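cron nightly-structures :: item 1 of 1
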Amino acid sequence: MELTGSSEVGTDDAINNAIEAASKTVKNMDWFEVIETRGHISNNRIKHWQVTLKIGFRIEN
């Protein structure tokens, strides 16, 4: 599964936000892989980060 998280704090926070949002509906998540990191610049400073992830999970029998 692929999803994107965002944060004004940093990339780790963006990753955690994405995983937390996914955990509301996806169970048994095992791993993630960062696919892309992007950001928004405002007044010559980083305004927020966006991180796109692949999430792996186990399917229950």
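cron nightly-structures :: done
The first helix runs from residue 11 to 22.
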